[in-house]
Amino acid sequence: MKQRKLEMILEKVKVFEKPDVNLEQYSTPAVIAAEVLHFAFMHDDLQGTVYDLGCGTGILAIGAKLLGAKKVVGFDIDPDALEIARQNATTMGVEVEFVECEISAVLPHADTVIMNPPFGAQCKGNDRPFLSTALRVADVIYSIHNSGSHKFIENFIKPAVISEWYETVFPVKRTFKFHKKDVEMVKVEIYRILRYNGSA
Q1: Nearby residues of 144 by Cβ (< 8 Å), 6 or more positions away
Q2: What pTM was estimated for this model as a whole?
Q3: Which of 20, 40, 87, 129 is most deeply buried (CB count within 10 A of its CB)?
Q4: What is the pLDDT of residues 130-151, one digit of tens each?
């Protein structure tokens, strides 16, 4: 499936009904989800078991299944978001397992993690538990972070390594009262991380 076609399909995924600012529940736009998923697909990283950590309403998990992942599991602490995610999976005609739990309680093993963790805008360091869990449960990780995170990511994940990364823009729609624009274009960095120091 081509990236643009995937994006068009994922645009139908329902977003948060009552987003929680403390959980940094910003919906991953279809254009970014398709981009990250296609990035992973082109590296043959969507063939086995894929985990989506902090899956929200399920856009990355659903996209991974649409691209042929054998098994996909989405994890989130918010039962309301997970209910929407289950509805989305049903609407899209894909089988995805959704689990309500703390991120630290996720058990191994996945071949790949694809995630859009909190950026730490409300509480600095909110992305760290997600990175730690991803490194514990999977061999390859795709993750979206605020621009300027490269040095932190590089140091935090050692002895794992960044195999590739690039910068793009993440359109954040007006979600909370403090947002001043209808759409804010936020610079982000997308990473492919290898748990083992070597090629994959």
Answers
A1: 28, 32, 36, 115, 116, 117, 170, 188, 189, 190, 191
A2: 0.90
A3: 40
A4: 999 999 999 999 999 999 999 9
